[in-house]
UniProtKB/TrEMBL annotation:
Residues in HTH gntR-type domain copies: 28-96
UniProt keywords, alphabetically: DNA-binding, Transcription, Transcription regulation
SMART domains listed in its UniProt record: HTH_GNTR, UTRA
Name used for this protein in its record: GntR family transcriptional regulator
Any Pfam family matching the protein: GntR
Biological process annotations from GO: negative regulation of DNA-templated transcription
Annotated organism of origin: Lacrimispora xylanisolvens
């Protein structure tokens, strides 16, 4: 869809306050401007999940554009999974965020797939480094031990969503570099190829702002909110690998269930 490709070329390069200026200056098509204004209102909650958007005539008045422009913008939002167009009823806002439950050990890739996204890996790079003090402690390995490092960008529906780095003792995954670009989900791959069963995990979760390099990899503005998950996975009591994931904060959510209180 050409209009979707056009929008991707400039998306995330404009601050919200720039939209009206670009519209009046004719630098981007009107449907792209309307699309981004509505998307912004979906993200900030002005148009809540499970609620209907204003009707087409109302949107025409709000944005001062034609019915065709509104319908084109709606089609793009539908293709992105942000809305559902219900004939005769209107357009309803969908919950497009992937929600990962931390009550079970699931990967980001598995979570995204379970939400119905088309997940693909881009720019995978596998090399062998030597355990630093931090990695040695996390993986229970002597400093200097060969460690397989897997770096990649994860896409959903061809749009970057996460930067993922994984570290594994090379002795557990000999010759893993020959599988570069041959898998998307690491957990499944390790279970099938190396018979490494993941039984538990410890997670450290925090938020940060995307730096320049991260913003370039994820095609967003520097300073965009990222959700970061640092995980160590275990088989029994033995750590078998660590994850370092940075994912777009407005696209992902974590769910945790707790019982009892520590008094």
């Amino acid at each position: 869809m050409n209009m979707l490709k056009e929008r991707r070329n400039y998306e995330n390069q404009l601050l919200p306050c720039d939209f009206h200026n670009y519209f009046t200056m004719g630098k981007v098509p009107a449907y792209m401007v309307v699309h981004d204004l509505i998307k912004l209102k979906i993200k900030d909650g002005t148009y809540p999940v499970s609620e209907f958007l204003p009707t087409e005539p109302e949107l025409e008045k709000i944005y001062k554009v034609s019915r065709t422009t509104i319908r084109t913008a709606m089609e793009i939002l539908k293709d992105e999974g942000l809305v559902e167009i219900r004939q005769g009823r209107g357009t309803i806002v969908l919950d497009s965020r992937a929600i990962q439950s931390l009550n079970k050990v699931t990967s980001v890739t598995e979570c995204l797939r379970n939400r119905g996204f088309d997940v693909r890996t881009k720019s995978m790079y596998i090399d062998v480094i030597h355990a630093t003090e931090r990695l040695g402690k996390e993986l229970n390995q002597p400093i200097g031990t060969p460690i397989a490092r897997i770096q990649r960008i994860q896409l959903i529906n061809e749009k970057p969503i996460a930067i993922i780095k994984d570290y594994l003792p090379y002795a557990l995954v000999p010759n893993i570099e020959q599988f570069t670009n041959k898998f998307n989900g690491l957990y499944e791959f390790l279970e099938q190829q190396y018979h490494l069963e993941i039984e538990s995990a410890d997670d450290k979760i925090f938020a940060k702002s995307a730096d320049f390099a991260e913003s370039e990899m994820l095609a967003v503005l520097p300073g965009t909110a990222l959700l970061c998950i640092q995980r160590i996975c275990y088989k029994g009591t033995e750590p078998i690998f660590s994850d370092d994931v940075c994912i777009l904060g407005d696209q992902y959510e974590l769910s945790i269930s707790s019982n009892g209180r520590n008094k």
